């Protein structure tokens, strides 16, 4: 008896066959989507709304490791990364496109598995898949997803609006995605040495979910609307808190004081950091991939969110001349350092 | 004395340094561009126009060979490919984004050279570069470009509007890009055997330009407006005439008769085909990358373009039951075959 799922070579059904198989069940949900898959370009009508657009590129071996990232999770996360950028403008995503470059090692079923995660994200966030490009690569998998969204011009929040006296806030908690990645890397190394060993992942469900199946903060954008809060500036945390704070401050021409003891971290993140013998604050400051929202509020707006446990005030905006500093628990000021993505520097 | 241009490793200036260097001279030209590079997402206001969106992915070794494609030309062509899709909707492009994945072999200067072609295309077609993503890859170069454009809803032309009795037309001439590619491949093989040999490219400037620096047909879309012509259906020729005709007919639920002797081809294309001992018609039908526009016109609209030497009537639309046929010079009907892209089938 053969329990293996059938594997179909892409060559058997061809490029057009593959695209048809992947897109045959699409049902468009947004009234702004006039034309989706199937023409030279997609067509949208946003009425009198502004159009918000973001795009990203993920490559195998750099952004993901298929040794331990399931394809469905990868598809889901690839969408989330872009939706997070749309939310960081205080806008709502409506459409995505998916470009894939696939090497010969991927079967039709593998691509369908990847797409099942993409469609799940579309379902969960109410966005339409409207097109893309599926082609081949000499080695590995490359995914480029783009997202289109909409907002009234008056609601848009840029990186450039923070003012001295504003309060610096963050949603959720930080460092978890990095801690989850370190755990997966560690168990993968163990597996490479001894494939009989079962990975030790118990008790770390939260940080694994933060790494493998992150969510984007639609609920935060909805909360702002409900509470009638408009951040003065906002950015999503993809590269790490330190780097994102420096972007906000540079764009807004301000400085800031970030209080070490205020940075929200989950217990699993702290525990994993302990096992790895690193300071958990490093995971929060430089780890990245948390997809939380970092934003600044006027003191009046800060009053409106202070009882929401999902938001944490982590610092204050100052004049640019004071610099961007981490205020350590002991009270000393340490200049923040932007790490950015290190891939290009290897 | 060292005449070599200085090569800077990307690691020396980092990701943010590279992006700043590549985008520092951008001046936005379109009033629809509210926010370009530098935030989580770009923002556009199209007023009451529809938004048209297209995206593409090009990978090294599949879509281009850096042995003979200069980086500047590659950047230019990568933009053109997407603009062509926007024109094929009878729309006008306004913005593009550029995603790059680079392996360690590329210097800052090499990326700047690629961008110089991207910016030249932006300049020539009046579009704004509004963002993107620059990251690393384990091997080779991947480019994903997206284009946003606009049109009044009434002006949009889909693949689905062709009707029996319509006239099938094409702009420019076909097969040249394929002939140019074959020439470059041949000379590259010669070079690999004997690097001292100078490539034999004289007299083939036109087909080389068709392959290395194609243009997208903004002038055709402008001509339609001037002549008050609205095609009933349209598609751009990226995969080859045969495949595109079959897309148009399938989407429009019609058939067609394509007349062999009407297919426009340049003399250089025919000459190169002769040297390669292939039928030039094969280059036109299956070669691809010509980025001409294939469209159908009502008989009344066909009257308006008949004196324009840049348009050629190549066939007629029939009932679907008659199939999609090539009518050979001798009069016999041969069913067209879609080739599509063969990369995924290798």
What does this structure look like?
The structure is a homodimer of 346-residue chains. With 346 residues, chain A is of the alpha+beta class. Chain A folds into 2 domains: 12-155, PurM-like, N-terminal domain (60s Ribosomal Protein L30, Chain: A), CATH 3.30.1330.10; 167-345, PurM-like C-terminal domain (Phosphoribosyl-aminoimidazole Synthetase, Chain A, domain 2), CATH 3.90.650. Helix content of chain A is 35%, strand content 24%. Chain A contains 10 helices and 13 strands. Chain A has helices spanning 10-23, 71-87, 108-125, 176-193, 205-212, 218-227, 241-252, 267-276, 280-286, 299-305, and strands spanning 33-35, 42-44, 50-59, 92-102, 128-136, 142-151, 167-171, 233-236, 254-259, 293-297, 311-319, 324-327, 333-335. In chain A, the strands form 3 sheets. In chain A, strands 8-10-7-11-9-12-13 form a 7-stranded mixed beta sheet, sandwiched between helices. In chain A, helix 2 (71-87) packs parallel to helix 3. The termini of chain A are far apart. Strand 3 (50-59) of chain A pairs antiparallel with strand 2 of chain B.
For this entry, what is the oligomeric state of its chains?
Answer: homodimer
Largest sheet of chain A: 7 strands, mixed
**The CATH homologous superfamily of the largest domain in chain A:** PurM-like C-terminal domain
Runs of chain A with pLDDT <50, length 5+? 340-346
- Over the alpha carbons, how many angstroms does the gyration radius of chain A reach? 21 Å
The most extensive interface between chains reads: A-B, 80 and 79 residues
**CATH-assigned fold name of the largest domain in chain A:** Phosphoribosyl-aminoimidazole Synthetase, Chain A, domain 2
What global shape of chain A is seen? globular
Instruction: Report the helical percentage of chain A.
Output: 25-40%
